[in-house]
Amino acid sequence: MPDKWVRVWNERQPDVPLTLTQVPAGAAAGQLLDGDADAGLVRLPVDRTVFSAIPLYTEQTVVVVPKDHLVTAVDEVAQEDLADDIVLHPLDDVLDWEDLPGRPALERPATTADAVELVAAGIGVLVVPLSLARLHHRKDLTHRPLRDAPESSVALAWPEDATTDQVEDFIGIVRGRTVNSTRGRKQDPARGATETDRSDARRKPMPGRSAAGRSAAAKRTGKGGRSAPKGDRRGKPRRRS
């Protein structure tokens, strides 16, 4: 999805380049607050006293294992299936575990990338959101969905006091708005009403006449807008004097 959003942005604003920067999940909030990024895809929860956030989706949780691990024989893994495994819990873990399945490692790896290396070495297994499993994919590893595991929700977030027009434009792209949509943009007083505002104004009924009234009037008129003659009783013969 980020690649699609960047493509749409570049089509609409070719003179304003948009750059994607990958950072560890725990560093994203700091980058936004320091002004190193205008907006970010972050994992919830975030501090809503300083950030605005639009929830986007919730990721499936998977367990990353060597390709010869026993759980690869099934399509979905239960937490009890990992009871005999060492489950690695990196320091930058984005999942909120109260009780880890399996046996915890004696030392926690610093990053998810380090944990993946340990899985490849046969030291343990790793439980992560699906996107991280794909990000750190290796030919000698695979993953399976983990049933009843904590999930990770992703949101578009930005500092609340830094809601610029460009941030609003990017929000519009993420929400699928068309290029002509003005939702979310602040109106420029110097330019007056936007084209959408003017179109809406043209569609508003005249004072004293409702849309229903216009419909009723339309029904009373014949072709060409002329009213039907009074006393015209179509379908009945007229009496001759």
Automatic annotation (TrEMBL):
Q: Which residues form the LysR substrate-binding domain?
A: 5-176
Comp. bias (Basic and acidic residues): 185-203
Keyword Repeat attached: no
Name the source's superkingdom. Bacteria
Does Transcription regulation show up as a keyword for this record? yes
According to the UniProt entry, which residue ranges have a biased composition of type Low complexity? 208-219
Q: InterPro entries, from UniProt?
A: LysR_subst-bd
Q: Which UniProt keywords apply?
A: DNA-binding, Transcription, Transcription regulation
Region Disordered, annotated ranges: 178-241
UniProt similarity note: Belongs to the LysR transcriptional regulatory family.
Name this protein carries in UniProt: LysR substrate-binding domain-containing protein
Q: What species does this protein belong to? A: Streptomyces venetus
